[in-house]
Amino acid sequence: MKSKKVLKAVFPVAGLGTRFLPATKSIPKEIMTLVDRPLIQYAIDEARAAGIKEFIFVTSRGKSALEDYFDYAPELESELRKKGKTDLLEVLKDTNMDSGAIAYVRQNRPMGLGHAVWCARRLIGNEPFAVLLPDDVIAAEKPCLQQMVEAYAETGGNMVAAMEVPPEKASSYGVLDIGSDMGSIVEAKGMVEKPPAGTAPSNLAVIGRYILSPQVLTNLNKIKQGAGGEIQLTDAIAEEIGKSKVYGYRFRGQRYDCGSKAGFLQATVAFGLSRPDLRDEFSAYLHDMVALQKAAQ
Ligand code: UTP
Question: N or C, which terminus of the chain has less Cβ within 10 Å?
Fold first, then answer.
């Protein structure tokens, strides 16, 4: 084991979520539900499975529903208990967090992902930390962050989740310039956020899971606005290349971009079909829908 344990995770949830307007006018994107669980619950479960003990949310104006979500609901629990609904009680229990395990910091203005993570610097202190973007939902046998924590225990340094994307899509992502390629782990010799079309150094894109050294926070102190006029986390990580190691980790699993409408719909179908209580009815319905669509063409 080369590295310190990762016990803290940052969940940047202060973005405006404009792609889901008008819903996000009053509902935080992270509270939107895949089947019956909000996006944030999937991210929390993944972090817990990876051994995270402290959960730091970077929030903003209009996100109070997110904060309320993690509170105990005594009236609801006692009502369910009275009615003998033990299965639903168990479901609720999974949403409860230990006292003091969650902390909230505010990002006053949406200045970018890098800025959001920087807002958490005092709570992170001088230790490695994870970052999870709840709108990247990853279905995997072993949760993605757990895979990364295990790999990181061997490598140390900084690690970002990585996934091959079609070349024409690369300009929507942070992209790695691959130094050495060891299969599931690659060492980056460069990293660029949203490269202009045709200039991406590879088609290995960065996905919303990171394990970072506190040095990245120091880099963020001086990072200027980058792609899209935002303070980019990618730029602060790229600063580390040549000073410490930056690895890309090709995770095993299926990632859904739930920050986009198409990705959210795809995830809804995939998660609906993976649920034993819904699978039969839902797949019969989808089957009929596709047949109807075909007949109409
Ligand atoms: P996105 O790029 O998806 O932005 O942010 P967004 O505001 O959430 O959504 P759109 O593009 O307007 O539809 C990726 C992640 O970074 C967080 C978001 O909350 C999301 O989890 N973020 C982004 C912040 O916390 N602060 C920011 O200033 C920007």
Answer: C
Q: Residue 147's domain spans which residues?
A: 8-259
CATH code for the domain in which residue 29 is found: 3.90.550.10
Pocket test for ligand 1, best of 10, 13, 40 (most atoms within 8 A of CB): 13
Note whether residue 61 is domain-resident: yes
**CA–CA gap between residue 219 and residue 6 (Å, rounded):** 20
Write the CA distances from 260 to 75, 265, 281, integer angstroms.
35, 9, 26
Judge whether 100 lies within some domain: yes
151-204 confidence digits (pLDDT tens): 999 999 999 999 999 999 999 999 999 999 999 999 999 999 999 988 999 999
Each residue of 107-149: pLDDT tens digit?
A: 999 999 999 999 999 999 999 999 999 999 999 999 999 999 9
Domain count along the chain: 1
On whether the pTM is more than 0.90, the answer is yes
CB 133 near ligand 1, within 6 Å: yes
Contact 111 CB / ligand 1 (< 6 Å): yes
